[in-house]
Write a structure and sequence with these properties.
Two copies of one chain form a homodimer.
Chain A lengths: L2 E2 L5 H11 L5 E2 L5 E3 L4 H23 L1 H5 L14 H18 L3 H17 L8 H5 L14 H19 L3 H16 L16 H12 L2 H13 L6 H9 L15 H7 L16 H17 L3 H17 L31 H17 L3 H15 L17 E2 L14 H9 L2 H5 E4 L2 E4 L5 E7 L2 E9 L6 E8 L5 E6 L8 E4 L2 E3 L12 E6 L6 E5 L5 E5 L9 E6 L2 E6 H4 L6 E4 L4 E6 L2 E12 L6 E2 L4 E11 L11 E2 L1 E5 L1
Parallel strand pairs in A: 6-10, 18-24
Antiparallel strand pairs in A: 1-13, 2-5, 3-7, 4-23, 5-6, 7-8, 8-9, 9-14, 10-13, 11-12, 11-14, 15-16, 16-17, 16-24, 17-22, 17-23, 18-20, 19-20, 20-22
Helix pairs in contact in A: 2-4, 2-17, 4-5, 4-7, 4-17, 7-8, 7-9, 9-10, 9-13, 10-13, 13-14, 13-15, 15-16
Chain lengths: ~650, ~650
């Protein structure tokens, strides 16, 4: 038996350490991961059973599909410039869902919608509902505002997902024809548009298309769009001059009165390699950075990777909410200043948290490090999941960290980017949780289920039983093995204060920095026998998070977390005026269950200030108050009362 | 000796009580009050010696005065629509200053500026620099935005002040001619404009003009403007329709996309008697409410007074900062929602606090009650005074209650309403502090100096020695008396927890509600002998103010006050990251002096959260920190470091 576990010798420890770090990996394909998790599976089932049909219904009733029948469109409703992206994300989510939930009716629905798209495509390959039906003469004249290539990008992602799920090339063919046109129109050559889209998306989509087709030219086009961004002469100035009219956003373009911010809004303020701070519209930023990480990997481009690392560090150390939500302001749907993270007005768009997960997934392909894995886990369990109601039919677009009440999820939005984005993410969750290296399974996020791991020309099967939200026991059992040794790599989350690991019953010393380094990943390579188990025991005791002093408005406040979940107080459990509650520093906390939710309880206090008037000289009165915290993602599912993530902490 | 002091009999106590309440009073004329106060006099001297000359210089160099020579104006600079009001407020401040600081040079400067105004006046009486030189055809077509009658109002106030100070009618004559025209143009009659100005001001100015001239028609015009406001059909809609173009604010008009808020912005959302909440632009609101109080008094109009009381209660119980600052948002320079009083972004415009003092002064004429007197004192010592730098040359337009540093006063503003507004207020301070009833001196705000009190056809002199900011001893000494008995009335501030009062050496029982009722005013009527003294001993121990729970972001915070002054922490005394400081509930506080300022000191703590990253699991570390509080008004005079009024309080 070849076996490089734990700390038998320094040499072996080094080998383990080396094995676990710096090696590339790729997301596990959807069909290789079957999620069977008490936490996640009900949510995915809800998306499959409720969200996807409901969103199909929305596309019908709002008019997206009708609008694809150009000849029947008589002006009402007028297609929104984003509509094609809504259709695309529904296709992507529905395609993903077919992988583990075969459904001939849904398969046929997909064929119908794709046939509509094909019939809507112009002879030269162009496909955009808004411009084809409303402003046919204005094609590619308002890249800054009109989301034309953004829509194309989502349709490309949809095509790749549909092809991967069904083997059909119907939409892939349509989109390859469209990309042929885009390739002709955009570029540095004579007569070409030296430009790119104001809303990034097509860049990462083209990387996916290159992966699905093996055609490097798509990668080159992605690279062109990424590299051209922010260069002088500034494309959007030239475009505006040529157009001679306001763009689609008109004078209301965010930051219109401040050219610098207007450029930052769409990450056009500098060439991407020179960018140092996460700025502007948060979703745009995440999609750009995802493409940058993709290209850094595909082109082994260290300066692009360096830019990604810089931006990641800046974002996560200065501009990220404790929930993994990002983007402070509704004004630009994005970033403001360092350490400007107000709770009540937090924008923290669901799509931005999804984008953060997408970027993390891509950086983990290059550099498996807990700085990415921890944030991936955090965003998935909090900033992303909060976007979806328990019944799968209502959505948060923005995700504040406190509410004075009266805030709830909506069924749909005029700009309906978030609902289908949640759906496509949850139906592809396995690819975020698991990755494959060479003869290696990498577990970024512990989610129960079964993973088929390619090993040489063979395949191993690992069954994961992860009770991350309860006991903290995570077991990876080799259910079917191979003769070739392979590696099991897993992330030890930074949130677990004491963690133990056994491999086939033998304890591994995680205190040895050669075994578990700062990257937080530990790898075990061996010849596995059937039923060999890797067992991790995580510390899931509730813990308190306290803010960097520079989060000035959060001084003296504390947030409660357990495992990967952030917790919050809700009015339904704790009464109104949550701001008057405090959690003493020495209060015992315990875990429990309330209405199907894992809860955290503590003996707290409720302060009142007797008297009248806005400002009172009376002494505060404090009384005992049992505090009940519920997971943040679950808030606003039991009425629209007050909510708070950050709670006063008293000495 | 006829003597109705204190508690010798119940009957006498009743007489005292009855005497003190519900009786009208009028502000003491400027010439009757000589301020000689260690706190206020240096500030007034600074205004006289520095601010007024400096602002005259600004009117010269920015171009206000040049613009009055229409024939010489060649388009650069283009007069701002507000410019006449800047000139007016300077005239008012300079005139006020002449009362106690005779200055033949300043007198001559005033004559010159007034001559310029007279020469600029059109034959029909019209006088407005912007419209006369830039848009002569557009006169009275944009009342909503263009501040035409607002400028006229300030010029009327200037004329009244100049006349009162100098006896000259030069400006009064000019403005009466202009008002003749305004009276012709506006009104309900055939061919008249059934309208009013978007920015209230002329209403209260016309009441002053009526007072100065004895002409009731000015009162009627004021009443017309006040009553017409907010009625249907809505004047500004009709005006906009007639004009056919955007107003001066254009599409940037605050709340342009929300007709309801757009009306509230200028208090046009309902007829004034039906208004229940202080809304919109804060200065506009204060000027309107001041005029409403004036008219309620002059016309003995109880429903107008009732509206004032409702608005006052709403404002002071829900929308007023602890400094007496009002107006939350820079967007509308005004009010937002109840209990929305963020510190760092507080607008709390200096002019709005001045407007609040103006309104309080008017309500006190009808109803001497501490609900007005306490707020008047608070606003003067904090929200107003913070607007002026120690050197008298720099000004805050907005007055936040916390700063992360880098915020300081400016010499001037494009819209320079606040600097001359502070100047005219401080040069008329005596009229805010003291009022006269029938044979009665009323002290609303204890400021040292000398007051000549009309008694019958005679005059008494009362010398006040008020150490409100120090020992709390306030002495009113009858320096010259009359044969007729007269009344001395004073406000016992709510902030003084224990107060004693002696009259000619005899103690008065302030615990008797018949002597000191809820109104907070106590009156003593007697035949006074020379050197009789009324001595009040106030409790000036530092105290803590705690917020109503509905100020949700202030839960757990405390503000320190002493006497009428609010205090603040500044970085220069306490180091950076003030948010990490806390004031334990049982900490001893003491008073002291730092750099000429009265300070409050306490043994506090400084918390740090060891570790790295935005959110940390490490336990907080607390160390001793000596906290030094300085008066809020004095902040940002020793560098532009951090500042905080509200500080964390720990149990």
């Amino acid at each position: 038996m070849t076996d490089t576990i734990n700390h038998t010798t320094d040499h072996q420890a080094d080998a383990i350490a080396a094995a676990g770090r710096g090696r590339p990996s790729r997301p596990a394909p959807l069909d290789a991961v079957t999620v069977d998790d008490t936490f996640w599976s009900p949510r995915i089932e809800t998306v499959v059973a409720e969200t996807i049909p409901f969103q199909r219904h929305q596309l019908d009733t709002v008019g997206h599909l009708h609008a694809l029948r150009h000849e029947e469109l008589v002006g009402d409703p007028v297609p929104h410039i984003f509509w094609d992206s809504d259709v695309a994300k529904w296709i992507e989510a529905a395609s993903n869902s077919l992988v583990h939930h075969p459904d001939s009716d849904l398969d046929a629905q997909l064929d119908d919608v794709i046939a509509l798209l094909a019939s809507a495509q112009d002879d030269d390959g162009y496909l955009n509902t808004y411009f084809q039906t409303v402003e046919p003469e204005a094609r590619f004249t308002d890249l800054r505002d009109a989301h034309e290539l953004y829509c194309a990008g989502h349709l490309i992602e949809a095509a790749v997902a549909h092809h991967a799920a069904t083997g059909k090339t119907s939409l892939l063919d349509v989109m390859r024809r469209y990309v042929d046109l885009i390739e002709d129109v955009f570029g540095p050559g004579e007569g070409q548009l030296r430009g790119y889209d104001g809303h990034e998306e097509i860049e990462l989509a083209l990387v996916k298309l290159a992966g699905a087709t093996g055609e490097l030219r798509y990668l080159e086009l992605a690279s062109y769009f990424v590299e051209e961004r922010g260069r002088e002469p500034y494309f959007f100035d030239l475009e505006a001059e040529r157009r001679g009219t306001d763009g689609w956003f008109g004078s209301h373009f965010p930051g219109a009165d401040h050219p610098g911010r207007r450029r930052e809004y769409l990450q056009g303020h500098a060439p991407v390699r020179e960018q140092t701070e996460a700025v502007g519209h948060a979703v745009r930023a995440m999609y750009l950075y995802s493409a940058m990480a993709d290209l850094a990997r595909e082109q082994e481009d260290s300066s692009l990777l360096e830019a990604c690392r810089r931006l990641w560090d800046h974002l996560t150390s200065r501009r990220m909410y404790v929930t993994g939500g990002i983007g402070t302001s509704a004004v630009n749907e994005g970033f403001t200043e360092d350490f400007d993270l107000p709770d009540g007005t937090a924008y923290a768009e669901t799509c931005a948290a999804i984008g953060l997960a997408m970027w993390a997934q891509r950086l983990l392909r290059i550099d498996r490090h807990r700085r990415y894995g921890d944030v991936l886990e955090l965003a998935l369990h909090n900033g992303v999941l909060a976007g979806l109601s328990h019944d799968g039919r209502c959505f948060f677009y923005d995700n504040p960290l406190s509410s004075r009440g009266g805030v709830g999820r909506n069924e749909w939005f005029d700009v309906a980017c978030c609902p289908p984005n949640v759906a496509r993410l949850l139906t592809s969750l396995g690819s975020y949780a698991y990755a494959f290296g060479d003869d290696e399974l990498v577990m970024h996020v512990a989610i129960s289920g079964q993973v088929r791991v390619p090993v040489g020309d063979d395949e191993a099967v690992v069954v994961v039983d992860a009770d991350v939200l309860g006991s903290g026991r995570v077991e990876l059992r080799v259910a079917a093995t191979t003769t070739t040794p392979f590696t099991v790599t897993l992330r030890v989350p930074a949130w677990s204060r004491t963690t133990s690991l056994t491999v086939a019953g033998i304890e591994v010393d995680l205190g040895d920095p050669a075994v578990l380094g700062e990257d937080g990943y530990v790898s075990v390579t061996r010849s596995w026998s059937e039923d060999d188990r890797v067992v991790v025991q995580l510390d899931t005791a509730p813990r308190r998070l306290r803010p960097d002093a520079r989060l000035a408005d959060h001084a003296g406040l504390v947030a409660v977390a357990r495992g990967p979940l952030m917790y919050a107080l809700e009015e339904v459990d704790n009464g109104a005026e949550l701001q008057m509650l405090a959690l003493p520093r020495d209060a015992e906390v315990s875990v429990g269950h309330v209405g199907g939710l894992d809860t955290v309880h503590a003996a707290g206090t409720r302060t009142s200030i007797p008297g009248e008037g806005l400002y009172r000289t009376s002494d505060p009165v404090e009384e005992f108050a049992e505090l009940t915290f519920v997971p943040y993602f679950s808030w606003a599912n039991r009425g629209e009362g007050e909510m708070r993530v950050w709670v006063r902490e008293t000495p």
